Amino acid sequence: MSQNNIKNEKDSSSSTVPKQSELEILIRARYPLVYVISWEEQRVVNEARRIAARLNKKVFEWSVTMGLVPAGTSIQMQKQKDTATQDPLVALDTLIENVEPALYVFKDFHPFMKCTNMAVIRRLREISESMKNTFKTIIICSPLLELPPELEKDITVIDYDLPAERDMAILLDRIVEQVKDNPKLNINLTAEAREQIIHAMLGLTLTEAENVLAKTLVQNRGLGTDSVAVIHTEKKQIIRKSGLLEYYDAEEDMKAVGGLDILKDWLLRRSVAFTDNARRFGLPAPKGILLLGVQGCGKSLMAKAVSNIWQLPLLRFDIGKVFGSLVGSSEENIRRAIKVAESVSPAILWLDEIDKAFRGTRSSGGNTDGGTSSRVFGTFLTWLSEKTKPVFVVATANDVTSLPPELLRKGRFDEIFFVDLPTSQERKEIFNVHLSKRHFKTSEFDLEKLAAAAGGYSGAEIEQVVISAMFDVFYEKQNLSTQMLYDSIIETVPLSKTMGEDIERLREWAKGRARQANSAQAIEQQGQKRNIEL
Questions:
Q1: Which member of 125, 215, 418, 533 has the lowest number of beta carbons within 10 Å of its beta carbon?
Q2: What is the CB-side half-sphere exposure of residue 150 using CA atoms within 13 A?
Q3: CA-CA distance, 463 to 370, in Å (whole number)?
Q4: DSSP string, 365-414
Q5: Which one-letter DSSP state was computed for residue 131?
Q6: How does pLDDT run across 95-122, given as a tens digit for each residue?
Q7: Residues 6 or more apart from 279 whose CB is under 8 A from it?
Q8: CA 15, 21, 22, 27 torsion: positive or negative?
Q9: Tens of pLDDT, residues 208-256
Q10: Residues 6 or more apart from 261 whose CB is under 8 A from it?
């Protein structure tokens, strides 16, 4: 590249140019072939037009339906349709013949770059060499990355980020300006509501964001804090189409969880961590928590509750869906699931019973499946440590001995909590929760007596005690009473008795390794044999 060419490229720009995007840097550096991965081809075209305006260049678009036409040509303008250049080879030949400085945006060109289209691949390699001394750049825009090996050294690939907060703020302001005088609509946008809506729209494309704002205007007859729930339904569509994550509609809140006051307080103190004020203060977004402990003590319930409290979408990640039958598909699946989660961030990613998902990585080093489990686990660990998007991970586990030690290292999660069996006071709260949930007046029951009788019972077992007693009284056509609940407790054998040794071993492991989720240790061993030394 000659010094004269560099000077001309530099002089054609304005002295007040804002911070350059990666695409603009590559164009100014005279990269001949740039592959942009994005669903938003119109944003890419608009960006190319802004760059071209600063560099005094023209912009052309190519598609298989329109051919090579000036940028901005409407699909209705059939007169400007270039039928001949619908053929990709003809379009590339036309590009070569054109000597004026220009940017050429090729839309969905990836199907023509497969190994079966050697003529197109060969022509792109020739163009790549010849265009280094010109002021022309080819921008291939596609939502998928399909690159033949022959072009790996000639094409530069960049990811085009989804709209940032500034883009969403501009879109929201434009929509508000358009509808503010409509008497049928109630635009109640406080500063807090505006921030919540903008944050909720992050992860959507501009088209998706504009559509969902229109939807909330129609559905709610305005814009306000209730618009956030409508926006989350749009994100639900994105998750559903991914096939790897499940959007979970969480209805539980902190009142539905009895006990675990230390864990609740920790989560409530971080409920403001995703706001603009938190970022201005210098707070990073929290990474996540690992909940270890006894089965049925509220670990999964807490994941659902925090989604409701923080007003963030809850994504349930079933790692079993990651493991595909094709070689390499499992690794691609975990990367795609992570990318989808990040695309709808801020969000909560819930991994239930992670000890079962990654059991093989510790027991056999991943040798039983050709190392697939180890590679998937390695990808997940790397993302946990290095993720920059606000995705809060809630992982739960029952068998801590199955967890790989790498997962427990500091830095993977913000905190590791041990969820023990509920204390007497917590059992009283749990009885209160489940009786109130089923529309019984808790003042008519002796909760102290029930809590004392249910020593060693988990939250899930207490719920089953209530349900079992309800079945009995419904069959006998009686009213639910304290005595009926007490009888149901006596008839139930809790997990703390059938697996007492395992639970005790779990408690011993947690000492000094994990933080207690309960304010008091829930060790209540009635009638246990006392050990003495003689």
A1: 533
A2: 15
A3: 43
A4: TTGGGTTHHHHHHHHHHHHHHH--S-EEEEEEES-GGGS-HHHHSTTSSS
A5: G
A6: 988 889 999 999 999 889 887 788 999 9
A7: none
A8: negative
A9: 889 999 998 998 888 888 888 888 877 777 777 767 788 877 677 777 7
A10: 518, 519
User: What are the domain boundaries of the chain?
Assistant: 3-159, 165-242, 248-419, 424-497
Q: Which residue has the tokens 């050709």?
A: 370
Q: Collect contacts of 57-61 with beta carbons under 8 A, ≥24 apart.
A: 57/101, 57/102, 57/103, 57/135, 58/100, 58/101, 58/102, 58/103, 59/102, 59/103, 59/104, 59/105, 60/95, 60/102, 60/103, 60/104, 60/105, 61/104, 61/105, 61/107
Nearest Cα to 314, choosing from 267, 263, 246? 246
Give the tokens for residue 81: 């349709």
Q: Please report, as a single letter, which amino acid is at residue 456.
A: G
pLDDT tens digits, 399-413: 777 777 777 777 788
Global confidence as pTM: 0.67
The stretches of 180-258 forming alpha helices (DSSP H) are 191-201, 206-220, 227-242
Q: What is the CATH number of domain 248-419?
A: 3.40.50.300
- In the numeric block, the tokens 């691949």 are attached to 121
Residue ranges of alpha helices (H) inside 1-142 are: 3-11, 22-28, 41-55, 88-97, 118-130
Closest CA to 473 of 465, 464, 481, 462: 481
- Residue found by looking up tokens 């050990």 in the block: 531
Q: Residue 7 has which token pair? A: 């000077």
